[in-house]
Amino acid sequence: MMTFTVWDILRNLLLAARWTVLLSLVSFLGGGLLGLALLFLRIGKRRAGRLFVQGYVELFQGTPLLMQLFLAFFGLGLFGIDVPAWLAAGLALILWTAAFLVEIWRGCVESVTRGQWEASASLGMGYVQQMRYVILPQAVRVAIPPTVGFSVQVVKGTALTSIIGFVELSKAGTVVTNATFQPFTVYGLVALIYFALCWPLSKSSQILERKFNVAHRHH
Amino acid sequence: MSLIAITEVKKRFGDVEVLKGINLDVERGEVIAIIGKSGSGKSTLLRCVNGLEMIDDGSIMVAGAQLIPDELHLKALRLKVGMIFQQFNLFPHLSAGRNVMLSQMVVKKTPAAEAEAMARRMLDRVGLSHKFDAFPDQLSGGQQQRVAIARALAMQPMALLCDEITSALDPELVNEVLAVVKELAADGMTLMMVTHEMRFAREVCDRVVFMHQGRVHEIGPPEEVFGSPRTPELQQFLGAQLVA
After folding, report:
1. Cβ atoms B3, B190 nearer than 8 A
2. For residue B100, what is the nearest residue in chain A, using CA coordinates?
3. What is the CATH number for B25?
4. Prediction ipTM score
């Protein structure tokens, strides 16, 4: 029987953690871009756009991420489209991330007071100018801490993709456990690696929040 | 022709008719005070004049620009009338100077250097040239309101609408703002102001409009309106003001 050192286990887990990091980045950036597009529909003047995004958000926030992963993985297969695990994982996470970010950001835009809209309108600015120069600069400042905070949820959300066979950190943990029969060591290390990824994010969210609260005047 | 022509203006919020046919012509250089109880429609009337509220009937013209609810017409109207708000509404993420520069650059496409020169002149006019780089939350309420006045003036409007501009200020800061308004009036700026400062209205205004239940109830020079009010409603309103 082979013996595995802790270093053997850790090395393999770290190799797989690269995929967790990559999937997190793709989900967060893709979800952010999609979320931004949806945001403008959500706060726009067209009723159809607002209703569409509202429905979208309710759908994705009202069902478990795991079901969304299953649907992306098996559902598209029903139409004869062969979906590799990485594609289904990335797609589902992007859609899921966007649904949460758009709601976070909508709240931030709406937190800018009515008076700001009225003052900029009374100076002759149009909707796009108001958004670009007055409303969004203020909303972004409010949005940064909760957005960074939400990225922690994205990192942890990637763990679910192990179930559809995407080999990231959690899946690698299962594989390594099956080879080593040391579940406690392996999953302990897996948890530590997740913590090492998430803790700096939530910490920086806290720091950013404090910074923008105290000194939000200084640009 | 009058600078501001308000003709048969009606406005309702849901079932409540807040303006029931307002007629008011304001001449160039005139200073008008609008007084009345809260809920009499005075703020709503002012907000209609630069299109922050849309009217249901009648018409509003400012120097040839008509109140029509689309972005192009609203912009043309708003370039003719500036507005000052009770809550100042400075842009908190910009310095005082940038507050005054922004709309010049964005709306009028004025080059930055020119906009800055104008901003410095306007801040100087309200006595705040030394606060160009200060952010709104580093300024007192009175200073913020003066920056807001400078910001409106920088767009070179033909008239200014003042919506209870001293009501959110501590008593000791009211006078510095009123002094600026007084100077504007002396310089010939056309002003329509909703105000609770009766003494100021009496001193500075050419005409006083008393609004009651969505109508212009009495109108006339301040000596008349304050000196010999004709209707019991105005007498009661002025009486209440004296006691308060």
Report:
1. yes
2. A123
3. 3.40.50.300
4. 0.93
